[in-house]
Amino acid sequence: MQLKSIAVSLLLLASCEALRILVVFPMASKSHSILGHGVVNRLLEAGHEVVHLTAIPREEPEKNLKEIVVPDGVESLSKSYPENFNSLTLKNIVGKPNVDSTFFFDLAFDFHKLFLEDKNVVEFLGNPKEKFDAVIIEWFFSDVVAGIAPLFQCPLIWLGSTEAHWEVIKLVDNIPGPADNVDLFSTHTPPLHFWDRLSELWKMFKKIIKMNLISYPKEKELYKNYFPRIADKRGVTMPSYETAVYNGSLLLLNSHPTIRTPHSLPQSAKYVGGYHIDFKPKPLPEDIQYLMDTARYGVIYFSMGSNLKSSDMSEEMKRRILYIFSTFKQRIFWKFEGELNNIPPNVFLMKWAPQQSILAHPTLRLFITHGGQLSTTEAIHYGVPVIGVPVLADQHLNMDTVIQKGLGLKVNLNVDNFAYELGLAMTEMLITQKYKQRARELSEIYHHRPISPRKEIVHWVEHVVKTQGAPHLRSPSLMMPWYQKMYIDLITIVCSLLILSLNLINRIRYYYSIRHKVNKAEKQIQKSALNKKVR
Ligand SMILES: *[C@@H]1O[C@H](CO)[C@@H](O)[C@H](O)[C@H]1NC(C)=O
User: Fold this and answer.
1) Which residues contact 349 (CB under 8 A, 6 or more apart)?
2) Which residue has the higher pLDDT, 425 or 515?
């Protein structure tokens, strides 16, 4: 007994030392890779050793870091699904409802398949010399990568790049109800009206059906065909698909109540939004530093992120935007990949922009953004008011929420009036102080945490390793089938009893009514017999 407890405490002590962590970010886009590199940075700073599977490697090698370069799945898929990707251009998006995230299911599946079947990945996963204390995997609309953790026989930590929406929460707990936890790609912001609630319920229902009938069987098949082969090379056996997927120790969420909605979270889910932001922003390049330092009326930064190229806009639209910008006294930085003519002297096009360092500069007045989760987080981190121009995915909800919080205004992306409406919003934001003030307040609340998200993310990873998978945080709901959680068994029993007793009552009544009739008839017969006698 005592020996055992000594062994356990030794184990706990030993795991405080440098860990070896595998970080897997299959999603190859720029913003997702910022999150991946953020995790790696924090772990390296804490003295741990990291292997990172990424499509976007660093320029410089780093101590304690090994990068395995994986294919850019987004690029290869955009070649195999041109119709889907073309549908994401400005022309096709404007004025239409948001893309349906079930659109991502098939894409995410193909994309994870491409990732897993890459030669570097197969070789790396099958190498029995590789050993890890934990695996951190980004979840992106597919669960199949959960199989990586059992290969290394170590705890699995999921990372969700967005808000605590039900599709990601389901990995570690009950599915939250759609009345307050709306679909990630919804354009409804809670609290909802009757029809919106109905629409959210319908969306969830459709998705669950599609997941169970189409996605799960495909993923399970891929899991069965892929992982056991690799597990053989490593000399381990794979658990069932369901066990692998629902054996995650922790879910790290790249959000925070100041950024989005204060949802209730399971104990094994933790908000770490903002962890990717360095403690001190990197110094600005000299020319940008000069432009910002000497901007008497301040600077406005306009960036539509990496999903939507500014070059998708029509010539007319660009000309109008430039014209509106020329009417402002502020210097305007426009992150823009293409070339433009007749640029007004206060507008500066930048092919690449050090966004965090620009947001951190005190002369920045305003951030015009598509409202991705990272841009929203960074705006709140640095206390900068925003004008949101949401385009797709979770950008609508992000922007509606921050606008609800008073951080800024929203402008709809429409081809004809966009420049004019943007100009109006910019003017309003610049003449009143209330947005700036609110941005400062929100930023203060965001920073007022017992521990910074940079430290917190490391803490939870270490906690999982130290406690061998943090079983004490695991929700008991993962151990019950859904029909028990929803009391379907009880309802079935009660209904059956009810039907049985109704049946019984009916029979008894029938019996008595027959008896009654028989009695009556008998009496009548006796009566008439009596009558006859009397006569
Ligand atoms: C489930 O996770 C725990 C904790 O990380 C781990 O010890 C266990 O081996 C995992 N189970 C399977 C079947 O992979």
Assistant:
1) 334, 336, 340, 343
2) 425
